[in-house]
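U., I forgot to send this yesterday:
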Amino acid sequence: MLVKNCVMSLIAGGFALLVSNAQAAPPELALPIQCVIGTDCWLVNYVDRDPGPAVRDFACGQHSYDGHKGTDFVLPDMATMRAGVPVLASASGVVRGFRDEMRDVNINKIGREAVKGRECGNGVVLVHDDGWETQYCHMRRGSVVVKAGDHIKQGDKLGSVGLSGLTEMPHVHLSVRHNGNVIDPFDYRETPSDNSICDPSARRTTLWTDDQNLTTSLPKSAIYLSGFASEVPNIEKARDGAYSSLTFNQNAKALVFWADMFWVQASDKIFMDITMPDGSILIDKIDTPPNLQARRILFIGKKNKGKPWPAGRYVGNVKIQRLLKDGSVQTMTSSRTLLIQ
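Result:
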């Protein structure tokens, strides 16, 4: 598609293996987003390494989806997106193309046909030496600050994280290509035999720099968003940042604690509770996911039975407990405090 005299497109077809006799070294990549991984943004989806309908990430897990050709860095909610989170150049290069006019809207509202041929949404393509390219997708409308032909340095701002194109959550999707072939920056190998065999103990060559220890990052679950609501929480409103209040009136019609999570597993146990000001438990719950899920939102709560809630501090707690293959237990926790007055 021609956009502002610049070509911007997605690479079609399945995952391609790299066989290269190139002399030049591949680019070293820095984070394509201004955030702290695991604190205010999360690595969620990786390149799908399986050539068929199955899914396999670089670590032989399933933290991806069929045909995914890049790496997704995800924000917690729409409120964070609206505040503005810069998308940065992972490597120095020259702008080959960009798009900047698509609106920010959840694909579930408009359908895939509305973005057909423009799945990347607003974004930028940078060309680097020796046939290398990086592409930055789903940027916020009107945020792109570069134009075709611009020489960009690693870390320069390209625009802001958005919700344009084929996406249902605010994030930046980074694609890496060499001579048109999809490259997994977590596991760049030069021979098809290495590239096609899943071996979790195999030596990997990463394209990432050591920024935030990304070179040793593995797919991880996360409790990335939680809060209180005075109603049964609406998922869309929760992920839009609507339930951000930390203070309720004593006559609130309900007291509900909710939590949103990435990559919960069927073997996980998820514990939730609300602790009252006197330390007693108002309500608790144990949940077991039915299968591996990229995102899962849970909530617990009670309705107001006509009496004011006791004033004071309430704490919502959520814990994911996971039994690992070596027999050890991994625990992930998060808490939120609410003041009722």
